[in-house]
Structures are given as structure tokens and as C-alpha cells.
Design goal:
The protein is of the alpha/beta class. The protein has three helices and five strands; from the N terminus they run βββαβααβ. A hairpin with a 5-residue loop joins strand 2 and strand 3. The model has no long low-confidence stretch (mean pLDDT 91). GO terms for molecular function: endonuclease activity; hydrolase activity; RNA stem-loop binding; RNA-directed DNA polymerase activity.
């Protein structure tokens, strides 16, 4: 948990059937302030994660760290490069263990 705003965000994708044809929600939460940003998407590709974070940054500012699960969108090379350009540390949870992502899960 972050001790200051924009210290740590947690992000995940979740399926929400009523939003079809864009059923995927990308959700980020600032673990200190509790601020939540959600965006809707057709897929869970790296491009969608980066679009989500770009919008979230425009509202909340740039986080120091983003914690995610090990989904393909978050482990993709393009996602890692995007985070490096923004000077954001990208951390992944332990596979099959959601406790490291307890707030967003």
C-alpha cells in the first residue's frame, strides 16, 4: 500500500458482459488515496493497458509504481517499454496468488 498518492497503483482487467461490444474494464486504483479510474475496451491487449494508463495519468498524475498480475497485456515488451519511458516501475504479482493485488482483486 502506498503511503502517498501516486506512489503505487494496482491495475487489472475485468470482464463485464453488459458493456459488450466493449466488455473489458481496465481498472486502476491508487492504493493510498483510493482514487479509481476505469476505462472500457474491446480487448485486453498491451495497447489497451497503455491507453488506460495514459488516460489515468491525465487525471491522477504519474505514479511511481504500477502493480499488475501476469497477464499478457502487462508483461508485453511494449508495456514494459512504455513504463520505462514514463519512469514508472512495473511490478507483477506472484502467479496464482492474488494477495499481492488484494486491493484491485
Amino acid at each position: 500500500r502506498g503511503l502517498k498518492p501516486n506512489q503505487i497503483w494496482q491495475t487489472d482487467f475485468t470482464w463485464y458482459e453488459p458493456f459488450k461490444p466493449r466488455p473489458w474494464l481496465a481498472v486502476s486504483i491508487d492504493t493510498c488515496s483510493g482514487a479509481i479510474i476505469a476505462t472500457i475496451h474491446r480487448t485486453t491487449k498491451s495497447r489497451e493497458a497503455r491507453r488506460h494508463w495514459t488516460l489515468a495519468i491525465s487525471v491522477l498524475g504519474v505514479p511511481k509504481q504500477i502493480k499488475t498480475d501476469n497477464g499478457a497485456a502487462f508483461t508485453a515488451k511494449t508495456t514494459q517499454e512504455w513504463c520505462e519511458r514514463w519512469e514508472i516501475q512495473l511490478k507483477h504479482g506472484i502467479p496464482y496468488n492474488s494477495t499481492g493485488q488484494a486491493i484491485i482483486e
